[in-house]
Amino acid sequence: MKVGILGAGQLAQMLAQAGQPLGMEFKFVSPDPTSCAAQYGELICKSYDDESAHQELMEWSDVITYEFENIPTDMVLKLEQANSLYPPSNALATAGDRIAEKTMFNSLGIETAQYEAINSAEDLHQALTVIGRPSILKTRSDGYDGKGQVVIKDNTDLAAAWDKLQGAPCILESMVNFDREVSIIAARKKNGEIAYYPLTENHHREGILRLSMCFHAEPLQNKAQDMVRKIAEHLDYVGIIALELFQAGNELLANEIAPRVHNSGHWTQNGTQASQFENHLRAICNIDLMQPCLLAPAAMVNLIGTLPNADDVAKHRNSVPHIYGKAEREGRKIGHINLTSKDTDLKVFKAELKSLLNLVNEFDLAAKF
Ligand code: AMP
Q1: Which of 145, 174, 203 corresponds to the end of one domain?
Q2: Of 39, 125, 144, 284, which is most buried with the most CB atoms under 10 A?
Q3: Do 193 and 300 fall within a single domain?
Q4: What pLDDT was estimated at residue 146?
Q5: pLDDT means per 10 residues in the chain (369 residues)?
Q6: Residue 202 Cα: closest atom of ligand 1
Q7: Domain assignment of residue 161, given as a range
Q8: What pLDDT score was predicted for residue 144?
Q9: 93 part of a folded domain
C-alpha cells in the first residue's frame, strides 16, 4: 500500500514507523525541508495549497491521510473526491469548529459544558448573563495547545478579553469543575469494525499535554466507548479518532475530538500490542484492526523544548524514548518517553515515573507520585 500523508512532522513519522513493517510505503507533503518524517519516504517539499503537490500525491497514493487539522477544506475535498482520503472531510470540518462540534455532541445525547456562540463584544456581555463566571472564551477554530483562549474571571476586563482574540468568531464555555481530564481513542473501518483503546488520564500545563497514563481498566471505559462510537458512526468515520473528555465524579463531558492520531495515545506504542499508529493505517487501508489490550500499566511523558540527558533517561530501565529529530525550541514537542511496567511492581513503576517527571522539570506532576 502507498500511503500519502499531508504533513511530515512527528505524527507522520510515527505512522511511517508503524507502517513500514507492514510493507507500506510513504510520501509526505510539507513546506518544511527539515521535516522529521522525511527519512521514511519522499518529501514533496511544497506548500499545502500547491496544485502540483496535490497532483503528485494523488497520482502516487493508494490512500491519503493527514497529521494535522488546519488543512484548507477545498484541498481536502479535492483529494477526497479523487482518491480515498481518510478520516473523512466532514470529521475535519466538525472538529475545526467548536460550535459545530458541541452541537454534534449534544445532538447525539453527549453532554458538554454549557456554551454560546460569540460574534461580538455585545454577544459576550449577553452570554455571560447566562453562563456566568468563571468561563472560557475560545476561538471557534484554529486553537491548539491552549492558544486562542481567555479565562473570564470575576475581575477580567471583557473588552481586553475580546480584543485579545482579535474579533475572531468565538465560543463561550462554562468552566467545568472536573476531577481529571481523560481521553478515549478508537479506530474505525469503513465497514463499521471498531477497536477501542483504554481510557487515558491526561495532564496539561500551559495548555500543552505533559503526561498521559493508563494504569488499569477504568470503570468509565464503557461509557467513554459508547460516546466515541456514537460520534464515529455519525461521521461514518474511518481511521483513528480521539475524544477528549472532562470527568466529574462519574460523569463524562465531551470537550473536543481530534480526527487523527493523538498525543494522548503515544503510550500505545509500548503499552499495547497494536499502537494507535498501526490501527490508523489498518483502518484507512481497510485491513483488519488489532483489538488493543493494555499489556501493563503505561505512561507517556512529553519532551518539550529541550531533550534530557540520554544517559539519565537510560537509567530508567522501563523507559522507551522516542526522539523525533526536531531542533530544540521552547514549547516545541520534540520527543516523548513511554514507560511501561512489564515485569515490574507498580510501586517501582511509579517511582520511575516520578523520577522521569523530575528529569523533564515537571516538578508539580512528579509530586503527585
Ligand atoms: P481545549 O483547547 O479545548 O482542549 O482546552 C485546553 C485546556 O483548557 C483543556 O485541556 C482544559 O484543561 C482547559 N479547558 C478547556 N475548556 C474547559 C472548560 N470548559 N472547563 C474547564 N477547563 C477547560
Answers
A1: 174
A2: 284
A3: yes
A4: 66
A5: 97 98 98 98 95 95 95 86 92 96 98 97 96 97 79 94 92 98 98 98 95 96 98 98 98 98 98 97 98 94 98 95 98 97 88 97 97
A6: 10
A7: 114-174
A8: 66
A9: no
Asked whether the CA dihedral 60, 62, 67, 68 is positive or negative, the reply is: positive
Q: What is the pLDDT of residue 145?
A: 63
Q: Which residue, judged by its Cα, is nearest atom 2 of ligand 1?
A: 146
Any domain includes 301: yes
Q: Count the domains in the chain.
A: 3
**One domain, residues 195 and 158:** no
| Residue 90 within a domain | no
* Cα distance between residue 146 and residue 159, in whole Å: 20
State the pLDDT at residue 263: 98
Both 66 and 151 in a single domain?
no
Q: Which residues have CB under 6 Å of ligand 1?
A: 113, 136, 143, 146, 173, 175-176, 181, 204, 207, 244, 255-256
**Ligand 1 atom with least separation from CA of 176:** 20
- Cis peptide leading into residue 87 (ω within 30°): yes
Cα of 345 from ligand 1 centre, angstroms: 34
pLDDT for residue 309: 97
pLDDT of residue 142: 81
Are 229 and 308 found together in one domain?
A: yes
Cell of 223: 461509557
Q: Is 55 left (phi over 0), alpha (psi -120 to 50) or beta?
A: alpha
What pLDDT is attached to residue 278?
98
DSSP 83-126: SEESS-HHHHHHHT-HHHHHHHHHHTT-----EEEE-SHHHHHH
Residues 366/205, Cβ–Cβ less than 8 Å: no
Give the domain CATH number at 77: 3.40.50.20
For ligand 1, the distance from its centroid to the CA atom of residue 175, given in whole angstroms, is: 8
Residues 65 and 189 in one domain: no
